[in-house]
Design goal:
Helix content is about 35%, strand content about 20%. By secondary structure, it is of the alpha/beta class. The protein is globular and about 60 Å long.
């Protein structure tokens, strides 16, 4: 393996910190409802902080699979949206310092990247690493947003119940980082918000609100969620209105509600929406509702 330390550049000297929490919010394969992206953008916008280290994305990113946008105006290129993967030092609303790893999930050199992040975790004395995720689920938007928690040590989970039993999913850098940290004796925790799979392609701030609330409940960090809560209320109102205007869509949501409520009563089954195969009844219902909402959005834009 090439030297992991050469993957990033430190902005000045690394500070002396008091066993901070590290929140890793990497977006790549799955970010249902853009919940991870909304979470990290909200933290960076609402809290004071600075960049501690910047990773060399030319070594980590496959630009052909995720091409950054450029703006062309009349006869020239006006701008290029430069991607970045940075380690930020932020202060919560009470002044407590914590770290945020924010940016695109690396496409290449996963093990080297994880070794680099692990090295920074050890140099900065991180006591707990928390990963954010958002997954499409066969759940209705009319029920409270759920979250799946997982950790390197079961004691970190408290009294949270599992939504899933055993599933096989494609790997991600964030989940592999948690796995590797556990193997090396570091505490790590992850939260995956459950986003209605028919809304997975649109912004769903309720999931972001839950992710930040979950971080606060497990660490004591005072993270702002007011704006996300207000945005979530607006999204809920708009979706409710669109569904209420169509009898078929109302029936579809009612079917998802029945399945969701039955699951909670029995705590059996698996609500994870399989993106590679259809779910019994729920996937078909969700697909129809997704098409309905997309058509309504087009109509509203015209």
């Amino acid at each position: 393996m090439l030297d992991p330390h050469e993957l990033y550049e430190v902005a000045g000297d690394l500070p002396e910190l008091d066993e901070p929490v590290l929140v890793q919010a990497l977006t790549g394969f799955v970010d249902a409802g853009s919940a991870i992206q909304l979470s990290r953008e909200h933290l960076l916008d609402q809290l004071e902080g600075r960049v501690l280290a910047t990773f060399d994305l030319d070594q980590l990113l496959d630009y052909r699979s995720r091409r950054p946008p450029m703006i062309f105006v009349e006869d020239h290129w006006e701008s290029y949206e430069q991607p970045s993967l940075d380690l930020h030092l932020l202060r919560d609303q009470l002044g407590t310092e914590f770290l945020l790893l924010a940016g695109p999930e690396p496409d290449l050199q996963w093990e080297r990247f994880i070794a680099a992040v692990t090295g920074l975790i050890e140099r900065l004395g991180v006591r707990l690493t928390i990963g954010l995720n958002a997954i499409p689920m066969a759940v209705p938007h009319t029920r409270p947003v759920g979250v799946t928690a997982h950790a390197t040590d079961k004691s970190l989970l408290g009294d949270r119940e599992s939504w899933l039993q055993r599933v096989q999913v494609p790997a991600s850098v964030g989940n592999l980082l948690e796995f590797r940290l556990g193997a090396s004796g570091h505490d790590a925790l992850g939260y995956a918000a459950h986003v209605p799979h028919y809304l997975a392609q649109t912004a769903f701030p309720a999931a972001s609100e839950l992710l930040l609330d979950s971080i606060s409940s497990s660490t004591g960090l005072a993270l702002p969620t007011g704006q996300l809560r207000a945005a979530a209320a607006m999204v809920r109102e708009e979706v409710d209105k669109q569904v209420a205007d169509d009898e078929q869509a109302s029936r579809l949501v009612a079917s998802l509600e029945q399945q969701y409520d039955a699951f909670l009563r029995g705590r059996q089954g698996n609500l994870l929406a399989d993106q590679t195969g259809p779910l019994p009844t729920a996937d078909e219902l969700g697909a129809e509702l997704e098409r309905f909402l997309a058509e309504r959005s087009k109509d509203n834009d015209n």
